[in-house]
Amino acid sequence: MAQPEQRAEGAGPFTTRLTWNPSEGRRVVWESRPARRRGTLTVRGPGDTADRSSPADDEALGRLRRLNAVASGAFVIGGVLFALGAAISQFGWGDAVESASVYFVGGLFFNTGGYVSLLQVLNAPRHSTETGGLVTSDWRWWGYEPMRLDWLSAFVLFVGTLVFGVNLVDSFLQGLTTRQVNRLVWAPDVIGCVLFLISGHLASIEICHRFRPCLRSRSLGWWVVAVNQSGSVLFMVSALAAFTRPATGSMVNADIANWGTLSGALCFSLGGVLQACERPR
């Protein structure tokens, strides 16, 4: 039997959109993010005047809803706690240990959100050119798929949350020299921010199907990525301002560090709220 004609789109070696014609007059379009988040394909059959969505089975849709609820909730709570930790430091509502404790708990929620985001990729229904629909695979807790852009973005995000965890744990250490503070606290913070930025850019490529940024103002997924990437930029600004100068033993700018963290964290909370709406209907 002849294989249906396929047209792949994406950036570099990554395929983020696939169009094929399984039968005469029928067109099916798979896009990475809608299939993974909403469990749908776009289908146009013979005689159709507009595209329509073809959902996965009920089991897959229920799985996607549960994973999305956990991931979005974790980012909302984690963002709120990070903002609270920054507010405690900025407005003097508590000492450094209290602020670090709130950050640490918020970091655990970010860890959860990062890992569940990876689970969303691993357990999303996969497209099948043979059946023309989405196929649900067995549940997996882990997988290695570096040639999938969505997996790579989620994996980098998860690693970024773990690196932030190193920063948060080290922030409890007392009696550190300036050099030790920069190496043990500041350096993991910057590395985590870089990983967040990389993850966000990979997510943008997934939506735009190209390396360059794009504007998709009618796409909820685009807004989720854009808001989260804004939060990552603000986190990076905060991290750069938190560098401790060896000559003075003080931060470059403590106000910018606190406000950058606070506003960036609120971006991630807003991104979590938007993500909660990006689910199967």
Strand order of the largest sheet: 1-2-3-4-5
Segments where pLDDT lies below 50 for 5+ residues?
46-52
By DSSP (H or I, 4+ residues per run), the number of helices equals 7
Q: Helix content range of the residues, please?
A: 55-70%
- Average per-residue pLDDT, rounded, comes to 86
Write the SSE topology.
Layout: E1 6-11, E2 14-23, E3 26-31, H1 32-37, E4 40-44, E5 52-55, H2 58-91, H3 96-122, E6 126-128, E7 133-135, H4 149-170, H5 178-208, H6 220-241, H7 254-277
Explain how this protein is built.
- Helices cover 59% and strands 13% of the residues.
- The strands form 2 sheets. It has a 5-stranded antiparallel β-sheet with strand order 1-2-3-4-5. A two-stranded antiparallel sheet has the order 6-7.
- The chain has helices at residues 32-37, 58-91, 96-122, 149-170, 178-208, 220-241, 254-277, and strands at 6-11, 14-23, 26-31, 40-44, 52-55, 126-128, 133-135.
- The longest helix is centred in the first third of the chain and has 34 residues, at 58-91.
- It is built from 7 helices and 7 strands; from the N terminus they run βββαββααββαααα.
- The protein is of the alpha+beta class and 281 residues long.
- The chain folds into 2 domains: 6-55, no CATH class; 58-277.
- It is elongated and about 75 Å long.
Keywords:
281 residues, alpha+beta, 2 domains, five-stranded antiparallel β-sheet, two-stranded antiparallel sheet, 7 helices, 59% helix, elongated
Entry summary:
By secondary structure, this protein is of the alpha+beta class.
